Amino acid sequence: MGKAQKYVLLGDATYPLQDWILKPYQEDENLTHRQLQFNYRLKRAHSVIENAFLRLKARWQILLKCDDCSLEQLPTLVLACCILHNVCEAHDNPFNEEWLEGTEPTELPKPSQPAPAAMEDNRAEQVRELMCQYFESCGEG
């Protein structure tokens, strides 16, 4: 869209809108088609991320029970699993679907209330609007 953008994290509605955290528009009957499309695309991207973490935990099930690892070693263990997982994925190492059996997606506790409006960054709306324009220019899907 003619403007270089930084990387952003995807958040849900409880996160404050920041220029580095994209969150969906608040669902109501006043959303435009473009805003609905943005929310849909954000939701699809979020599901890709959830699936990637599910595959990571399934391939490296030690991540499901890190209680036998010291806190000092935990970051190294997680990083090693992520690196090895990415190497396996990049080289099309076969993924056994049976690994998924013990790794149900877990819902982490989330705040029940959205972040206060005072925490939101006015510049972030420009980033979200640019993303809306980009998604619109890409067509449906």
Question: In a few lines, what is going on in this structure?
Answer:
This protein has 141 residues and is an all-alpha fold. The chain contains three helices and two strands.
What report would you give on this structure?
This is ALP1 protein. By secondary structure, the protein is mostly helical. It has a domain at 30-92. 43% of the residues lie in helices and 3% in strands. The chain is built from three helices and two strands, in the order ββααα. It has a two-stranded parallel sheet. It is globular. It starts with 8 loop residues before the first strand and ends with a helix. The mean pLDDT is 84.
Shape: globular
Main beta-sheet strand count, sense and barrel state: 2 strands, parallel
Determine the number of helices (DSSP H or I, runs of at least 4 residues).
3
The span between the termini is: 19 Å
Relative strand content: under 5%
Uncertain regions spanning at least 5 consecutive residues:
none
Spatial extent as radius of gyration: 18 Å
User: Strand sequence of the main sheet, in spatial order?
Assistant: 1-2
Secondary-structure element string: EEHHH
Helix content: 40-55%
How would you name the oligomeric state of the polypeptide chains in this document? single chain
List how many beta strands DSSP finds. 2
Question: Averaging pLDDT over every residue, what do you get?
Answer: 84
Helix-strand makeup class: mainly alpha
Main location: nucleus
GO cellular component, one term: nucleus
Cofactor: a divalent metal cation
GO molecular function, one term: nuclease activity
